[in-house]
Amino acid sequence: MSDNDAAAKPKVKLKPKLERPKLYKVILVNDDYTPRDFVVMVLKAVFRMSAETGYRVMMTAHKLGTSVVVVCARDIAETKAKEATDLGKEAGFPLMFTTEPEE
Length: 103
Fold this sequence. Notes:
By secondary structure, the protein is α+β, with helices and mostly antiparallel strands. It is 48% helix and 20% strand. The chain has one domain (20-101): CATH 3.30.1390.10. It is elongated and about 75 Å long. The relative contact order is 0.24.
């Protein structure tokens, strides 16, 4: 084989496979001290929910112990969970939101 044979082969460029970022769930954890109206107000303010949707999410957490509020990118989920938890702390309530990867 000569050097010309190697030069005649076309070079194949591989495109890197782009993966979608993993999504994370923001979870509302029920407690027995935070008033229901306050939880709905936080859901409306931080997560831009309607009063009806916020009430349903709050009641799901009340009955089952936890409720998924929203599924989004990790940085957004962590920011919103911290913002909502901080609102509860400022008002003196043990309101807690957590994040976990979506399966």
